[in-house]
Amino acid sequence: MLLHGVFPPVTTPFYPDGNVYFKKLEANVERYSKTPVAGIVVLGSTGEAILLSDEERREVLKIARDVAAPNKVLIAGTGIESAAETLKLTEYAAKLGYDVALLRTPHYYKKQMQPGNLLAFYRTVADRSPLPVMIYNFPQATGYDMPAELVIELAAHPNLIGIKESSGDVEKVRKMVEGTRRIKRSAAVTETFDAVTPRMLKPRRENNGQGGELVPVTALSGASRPSSSAVSVISEVKTRQKEVGFQLLVGSAQKLEPSLQAGAVGAILAFADAAPTACYEIYAAWKEGDTALARLKQERIAKAAERIAGDLGIPGVKYAMDFNGYFGGAARLPLLPLTADLKAEVERLLSDIRN
């Protein structure tokens, strides 16, 4: 699965009484689906997944899947402390039609989280997971920072396709990119090199409603010999293969441009919940090779991203969403809403980032 681009990790909206506000979740996901983001992450850290019940997690996954645009890659945060429970939620996400599972590092028993423990955890889950798996390293929240050497070793597993690296350490990004350069993998993409998801493929009645088979383009035109073996058609969607290797995404919006220069291929950004287009513009300029514009776009959001997503956390992100026309609302206890002074600060920071 192609993971290039910017992904907002959607928040979980709540009513004032603390129940999940599913209609607002639908509205937010539908709106993100109309932006140029590559996909959507559900039940990430910004989604307060750790504060939800198992039943709520499953319903959030279902609602988001039902309303997301077919061309957006759907990543499910299914990491729970035990491998067994992680697999249960991953299997459920696969049945719903998610594309990738994102697994945060187990961290509660920190002293026991030695390389052998993490190797066993990720390999066991990846061996049995019906979805391709991404590692999720978020030391600011977990208190555990997965070493680059361990990531490089895990990258050899065929079902571990990438990592979300949220430490903010650009040199670590560079080290992991160099260390995994030997990994050679490919992903199906469209003619314009965007991701192809199973939800884009039309079901075929003669195949019991399943997606269509691979058919060479030239076979449809009646040509006797293929003129381009790289292009195929899956259920009327023209596809080709793109080499992707082990895909590294970052979680720090204020360091997106230097991370891309270091070899990252995309990002999962809490700040993109409030400003998806502003984050995408950095990626788009970098993709076009316009370094000066990418840096200019980076400078535009750096201070706001660091303060809102980095310092103020989920309550800050949710208020920024409210300010920019999404539904943020309140977070769950023990997270508290912003004070009036902090709300005014968020508004000043976002005064020219209204998207």
Summarize this entry quickly.
By secondary structure, this protein is α/β, with parallel strands linked by helices.
Quick one: how many beta strands?
A: 12
State the helix count.
Answer: 13
| Widest beta sheet: strand line-up | 1-12-11-6-5-4-3-2
The coarse overall form would be globular
Kindly report how far apart the N and C termini lie.
28 Å
Q: Unreliable runs, pLDDT <50, ≥5 residues?
A: 204-229
Strand proportion: 15-25%
**What class do helices, strands and sheet pairing give?**
alpha/beta
Instruction: Specify the biggest β-sheet.
Output: 8 strands, parallel
Order of helices and strands: EHEHEHEHEHHEHEEHEEEHEHHHH
Radius of gyration: 20 Å
Mean pLDDT: 92
Q: How helical, in percent, are the residues?
A: 25-40%
Describe the structure in your own words.
The chain has 355 residues and is an alpha/beta fold. It has helices at 22-33, 54-67, 83-96, 115-128, 139-142, 148-154, 170-179, 217-221, 256-261, 276-287, 291-311, 313-323, 340-349; strands at residues 5-7, 39-42, 73-77, 100-104, 133-137, 160-165, 186-190, 214-216, 231-234, 237-243, 247-250, 266-268. α2 (54-67) links the parallel β2 (39-42) and β3. α3 runs parallel beside α4 (115-128). The longest helix is centred in the last third of the chain and has 21 residues, at 291-311. The radius of gyration is 20 Å and the shape is globular.
